Amino acid sequence: xxxxxxxxxxxxxxxxxxxxxxxxxxxxxxxxxxxxxxxxxxxxxxxxxxxxxxxxxxxxxxxxxxxxxxxxxxxxxxxxxxxxxxxxxxxxxxxxxxxxxxxxxxxxxxxxxxxxxxxxxxxxxxxxxxxxxxxxxxxxxxxxxxxxxxxxxxxxxxxxxxxxxxxxxxxxxxxxxxxxxxxxxxxxxxxxxxxxxxxxxxxxxxxxxxxxxxxxxxxxxxxxxxxxxxxxxxxxxxxxxxxxxxxxxxxxxxxxxxxxxxxxxxxxxxxxxxxxxxxxxxxxxxxxxxxxxxxxxxxxxxxxxxxxxxxxxxxxxxxxxxxxxxxxxxxxxxxxxxxxxxxxxxxxxxxxxxxxxxxxxxxxxxxxxxxxxxxxxxxxxxxxxxxxxxxxxxxxxxxxxxxxxxxxxxxxxxxxxxxxxxxxxxxxxxxxxxxx
Amino acid sequence: xxxxxxxxxxxxxxxxxxxxxxxxxxxxxxxxxxxxxxxxxxxxxxxxxxxxxxxxxxxxxxxxxxxxxxxxxxxxxxxxxxxxxxxxxxxxxxxxxxxxxxxxxxxxxxxxxxxxxxxxxxxxxxxxxxxxxxxxxxxxxxxxxxxxxxxxxxxxxxxxxxxxxxxxxxxxxxxxxxxxxxxxxxxxxxxxxxxxxxxxxxxxxxxxxxxxxxxxxxxxxxxxxxxxxxxxxxxxxxxxxxxxxxxxxxxxxxxxxxxxxxxxxxxxxxxxxxxxxxxxxxxxxxxxxxxxxxxxxxxxxxxxxxxxxxxxxxxxxxxxx
Lengths: 436, 321
Prior knowledge:
- The structure holds two protein chains of two kinds.
- Chain A is an alpha+beta fold.
- Chain A has three domains: 2-35, no CATH class; 49-157 and 313-358, 3-Layer(aba) Sandwich (D-Maltodextrin-Binding Protein, domain 2); 160-311 and 371-432, D-Maltodextrin-Binding Protein, domain 2, CATH 3.40.190.
- Chain A has helices at 2-9, 11-45, 61-70, 85-95, 110-114, 137-142, 166-171, 178-184, 188-201, 211-222, 238-252, 262-270, 283-290, 324-334, 337-347, 360-363, 375-383, 394-411, 415-432; strands at 49-54, 75-80, 102-105, 153-154, 156-157, 160-165, 276-280, 298-302, 314-317, 350-351.
- In chain A, helix 3 (61-70) links the parallel strand 1 and strand 2 (75-80).
- In chain A, helix 10 (211-222) runs antiparallel to helix 11 (238-252).
- Chain B folds into two domains: 4-55, no CATH class; 74-320, Orthogonal Bundle (MetI-like fold), CATH 1.10.3720.
- Chain B has helices spanning 4-14, 23-26, 28-55, 72-79, 81-114, 119-127, 134-144, 151-158, 170-199, 202-210, 215-242, 247-252, 273-283, 287-320, and strands at 58-59, 67-68.
- Chain B has a two-stranded antiparallel ribbon with strand order 1-2.
- The chains are: A alpha+beta, B mainly alpha.
- At the A-B interface, helix 2, helix 4, helix 12, helix 18 and helix 19 of A face helix 3 of B.
């Protein structure tokens, strides 16, 4: 409006203004095109640059910094990506521009990435197959597609064990030192017996912190999941039912703590509500952070009836990778036993190379666990996790079971109704996801 | 929300634009001036909206090839008990939050209107929550309503009452989420009402006083009818935002279990429709189904907005007749 009024009053003014406007637009357009061209050009020609995407805590920052120094003159450009990592990776891969050469893949996303294996480079073609024996087999398999392409090179694993309070176990007259506990609680029956005794002797204390976690561990121990390799729904089979019944038993026997959220859960770790917490190796860090006052009172014992796994990520090379051979060399350097041991110290990343389990960083006694060398529990656990086929839709199909067992736990929902509802809902989701 | 009024304003002069030849040539600077908005709108809003409509007829994991499935996603939606539960939760949380929010906002607006001292301070104080990060607020309220370590139960305990499992029970979960929304939006709506109150001519109140009307009568006979268009605006905006409640339950019930989708707490009591959409699309990588949920939510918002519009503006038309 202002502009048209000036047009009436003075033609020269409007000319100059138009000129300015036109000039500005041209400049913006030129800058945009030029910027894009520069970006594209820079990316295509500078083949001695390699980008690496990971999330905060996904790799040891110190190891990554050393890699940047070691692989000069190649410019290794690491980026810590915040927020929803998988979503940002997928979006960038769809855009087909600025795709990272090397990228992390979180454990929970590996199954869906394997379904798109042709968007990545088969690491076996770069010589990964020669290294297979140096890494835990089941995790290696998790990063391998069904036709044998290695897509994800394992960064870390989450072997599970029992974290327990030796002081509370002793108070209840239970064995309290790791060796004794291992002997006494080698089966789930032994676990429940000990739990019953502890709950009676130490009121307000429990041996299961999360019923959902107990269910998940049970499924993990079975070596099968909710969908089999032939894409059939197996969530109603005995291996799931056994894990479910065990979770229900923990509720019915009163050995499971009530469901707690947020602050309450944090508080429960420190105040003795959780006398035992079945969980993955990385949860040691949570306990240390949330309950620093309990230092020295915790110990670790093997999971009854064998280990399971919870979590653990991968590194992959995208199809757009500009120098696969060098990128693969970087990956193997980042994830060699020595650097994995550093990753354990820096970022609680439990190594996938058993050679690392013999290094001082892992064998040293941990004062938080009364000087116990926890690797004696976690090392064998990591090597003996049963391999299981995980379908892309597995997490979605698992969800109704977690929801329903939560209802039994927090609301006392009828056990049989909860099981029936869980199976029905899981079947519906499976069908929606194309599982028969 | 913020884009709606300018859109209406730019559309209005465009309609009666002279059909004379050369209009484009004569007014091109004006067209250039309004173009950036429409370019941004097309790229960042219209494009994605149309794409999501297209997506809702596909099966897509986000990376591979899309597969056309026709109306199958919508057929699943109708049978999906969890979707209906999520819709029910959304509507309940919306009612629990909107009714007290708008009522309190009206009260606060009246107080602000009659405040003599420090009125700017009060206005700013009431407005601060709506410019505070929802994530921070949700984390804060999540702690306040913790069963054992929370402030709410500490106060109840001091009064001798039994602790309430706020984040476990189906109804208290909704209450907590509604409280967060209410706390955040009372001040914003109050300022809008305040602007409306200040536009009501003082003569009306004077005349009412001369006719012997008390404060309550004045409020219901003058203030409320005069504010009707503004109330309508706030109700419509609250409907649109309330039906899209997402951040509060997402933050309060976020689990640190990596592959477990946030299902809105025990019994899915805090699972809102948009949270469910987010889980399906971004956690389960079922983008087609997620898009179908998003469009279903859009339809629900549309229906609710129309109903609200008719309810709140009905008496206006009745009065005009």
